[in-house]
Design brief:
Layout lengths: L7 H15 L4 H17 L14 H27 L9 E6 L5 H13 L3 E6 L5 E6 L5 H20 L1
Antiparallel strand pairs: 1-3, 2-3
């Protein structure tokens, strides 16, 4: 049954939505809805993401959340000062690469969310071997400081959580 109907709840939802959107329960729409509700999950089953992990180390998750929240607030102030400050200060932006140790897909996704949500940093590219991360930093004053900050404040706790 799982082979022919890989995600029964999604199929039931799709069928219900089909009937609601067409505003009819005519036999032809039931037939089209069943075909649609079966075909979409069946043909997209290979595109499903990696299974979610169990929550491990909730204390570290809470600590990481507080660190990220603090860093976002601090970064908002710093970015505001860069934007509203003198024009010559804006010339410090640039690209840098950070070596990565984390390999877990969920950990990389969490790191991407953290870095993209922090004002002044943008995740640009991840190398094919997942060992190098390219970032754009609005106020790139010291690459070593940024590398140390990312590895110690974000990557280390994420490795403890996901690996």
């Amino acid at each position: 049954m799982k082979r022919w109907l890989p995600f029964p709840l999604i199929s039931a939802f799709l069928l219900a939505m089909w009937l609601l959107l067409n505003e009819t329960v005519a036999p032809g729409h039931w037939l089209l809805g069943v075909a649609f509700a079966w075909a979409v999950p069946y043909f997209t089953r290979q595109m499903q993401p990696v299974r979610a992990l169990k929550v491990r180390r909730p204390l570290i998750i809470a600590q990481l959340f507080c660190v990220v929240l603090f860093d976002i607030c601090r970064s908002c102030i710093a970015v505001s000062l860069v934007i509203l400050g003198p024009a010559k200060r804006r010339q410090n932006s640039g690209f840098m690469t950070v070596p990565l140790d984390i390999q877990a897909p969920h950990g990389l996704a969490a790191l991407a969310c953290i870095l993209c949500c922090t004002p002044g940093t943008v995740w640009v590219e991840l190398s094919a071997d997942r060992r190098q991360l390219m970032l754009h930093i609005l106020d790139l004053h010291d690459e070593e400081w940024w590398t140390h900050t990312i590895k110690q404040r974000y990557e280390t706790p994420l490795r403890m959580i996901f690996e």
